[in-house]
Amino acid sequence: MSKLKLGIISDCIHFQHPDGRFGTETHILLHQIEALSFYFSEVILCCPVIVFTDKKVATYYSINNIKIIAVPNVGGDSISDKLKLFSTIPKWCNAFKKVNKQTDIVYQRFPNNLNIPGFFYFKLKRKKTFATYTGTWKPYKEEPATYSFQRWLLKHFFRGPVWAYINTNEENTRIHASFSPSYQKKVWDEETIQVEERIKKWQTEKISTLKLITVGALVANKNQQLILNACLQLKKINIDFTLTIVGDGMLKEQYQNFIQQHQLQQQIFLVGKKTSEELRILYRANDFVVQAPINEGFGKVPIEGFFHGLIPVLSNLTMANAMTNNGTRGFTFNINSEEDLVKTLSSIYAQQNNLSNIILAGRSYAASQTLEAWAEEYYKTVTAYYNL
What we know:
ten-stranded mixed β-sheet, about 400 residues
């Protein structure tokens, strides 16, 4: 651990339990912050803090050198929301001032509204900074203007290293290809026995049921409806399957109605949000991760699946071919075609060729995608860049 103090600016919503612990429902970010904290004497996290309720599916910080500077939670599409956003900027700047005073270097996570004024504040202060852009790095249709603006700032005016979800490093030497880890190396080790048992079973038995899982907010961009449509087609052609949908969101009622309308209650299960440990149990109970997002910077869920010996079936976005290594670690399908997803799943069910090798290749890949590897790369790159 160095003597350096790290500040982090994030729009990830947090809350404080009555017993004083800070937590969040964004479990992966919490684990990433804890992994980074290993390299710093203190971490000051500047983020929105809302009122705690016992309905939260929460994970709490377990490391003592992480402290919170709270800012108001604002956002929305209405005019009043936008006005509230502007009125909050002075409070944000006051928080930035505290972070600047208490830390040696600042980590900014883009894109979000909080880091737009944050960019200019720390730029003017000539603060040592580094960043992650967690959205889709290449422009896409219907991309918010604020996203493209922040990406432009990072490419041309940001002071320090930037990590983005791209396949290879760009010509700009400050821009690095990155991934978004979920698990420690010890989790990879802990899953070894169950993965070996999974492989042995597949080598001696034919899969009778496609056990599918998809994880993410129930919103249009995650596109669970395409997966539901494909599952309905699987039922019609008499392919046995189960689908577990993990997450919550505005489309929950629509999906519930679809399941009931088509009498899929015995095959499709909406299970809501889950903690990291609860999700781990669900991964172990399934065989394939199916994700169909329309736009996504980096799919964390397929990597989580790799850790547990699952095989990904992914919509063919920018990172999908890299994750599946063009078929050696998983499968891809045309995002615009539920028929292509049905064809892919039907082919897996009928042929079941080479699945054991696909699992082993995914597990090998996951071993390089740990929280420890991610945090070490960030720390070494940043300290070398600033000669710290």
